Amino acid sequence: MNIATKRWLPHTVAAVCLLVLLYPLVWLLATSLKPADEVVTSLDLMPSHLEWSNYTTALDGVSGVTVTRLLGNTLLIAGGAVLGNVLSCSLAAYAFARLRFRMSKVMFAFMVATLMLPHHVVLIPQYIIFNRLGLVDSFWPLILPKFLATEAFFVFLIVQFMRGLPRELEESARIDGCGPFRAYWSITLPLARPALITTAIFTFIWTWNDFFTQMIYLFAPEKFTITLALRSFVDQSSTSAYGPMFAMSVISVLPIVLFFLVFQRYLVQGMATSGLKG
Description:
- InterPro entries: MetI-like, MetI-like_sf.
- Keywords: Cell membrane, Membrane, Transmembrane, Transmembrane helix, Transport.
- Helices cover 72% and strands 0% of the residues.
- The chain is an all-alpha fold.
- The C terminus is likely disordered.
């Protein structure tokens, strides 16, 4: 194998893999512009003509709720979840990584063990609690648990990152009279930015795409998220609305793509540095 082949072969393989990965998005975009009769009958990637009315119908929303309201509900839930996870998980991670207290190792092991606990196991007890509190059919069951450090994966991720930070910085701050919370807020938290941004990105994407949990807690159409609206769109109009359904899918995917493109370099940095030490 000559030098030119060795140079271009990895790039060619990477380009082919990229095309394979991007094909579903291209197919989704093309299908959202197809007429209704071509969605299920034609195997061609490109439509015979562009059906822009699919997006007009999609923007009207479902059950009298516009796409703007649906996106606003989803953004509110995702934003609250991001804020809750970043604050609570970083606080819990700082306690495990920096503070010394009794049974800390046992509690950390127990916390890590919850990663193997299926989400459906705790769903019924959580629903009973929120139902007795009168919070069902509201956004609180989807946001409030995020402020209680219930995501063990993110706590573990941030702990591993914080353990790799030099302790000398906090020790110097304590000599100057800095307490644990001030050291967390002013020293450790800014240094842990890659891990925090990684937590924010994954939380935003997972919450935005969540369907099952939102279906359990949200009943009123005006409180629906974009994922619930997609399901309601199918139930409401059956197979004749495949075009608008795919158009709404494109609208729902755009915020995730933009969010990822803006913060992807922080995501790579956080995943590359978290867990290397500690």
